[in-house]
Specification:
Jelly Rolls; five-stranded antiparallel beta sheet; four-stranded antiparallel beta sheet; 58% strand; globular
């Protein structure tokens, strides 16, 4: 398994993980490291598509200051093909960090 760190402080969706082959995300955490509450959007985007309302996994996920939300835990997996990606956006003025664990399949 491998780990990827990501971050966002923008309302524009940005990639936090891009698959280079067939992979499975086994763990994903989202942490609000800012001193203010934040709202996060999380997208799962197929290759050749863009992060928009049709690719939302979580919309307006509320994270208090210094709070962490775990997306994939307890044996859940998200299967991705080459070019698929996970994107995140947040309210302006907030800083979000992510940690993604994945494995090739």
């Amino acid at each position: 398994m491998a780990l990827v760190k990501g971050s966002s402080s923008s309302a524009t969706p940005g990639a936090i993980y891009s698959s280079t082959g067939d992979t499975a995300i086994t763990f994903l955490s989202i942490t609000n490291v800012s001193a203010t509450d934040a709202t996060v959007n999380l997208y799962v985007v197929p290759a050749g598509s863009s992060a928009d309302n049709t690719t939302l996994l979580y919309k307006d996920l509320f994270l208090e200051a210094s709070d962490t939300y775990q997306v994939y835990i307890g044996g859940e997996k998200l299967l991705l093909s080459a070019g698929d990606g996970v994107y995140i956006s947040t309210t302006v003025g907030s800083t979000i960090t992510t940690l993604t664990s994945y494995t090739s399949i």
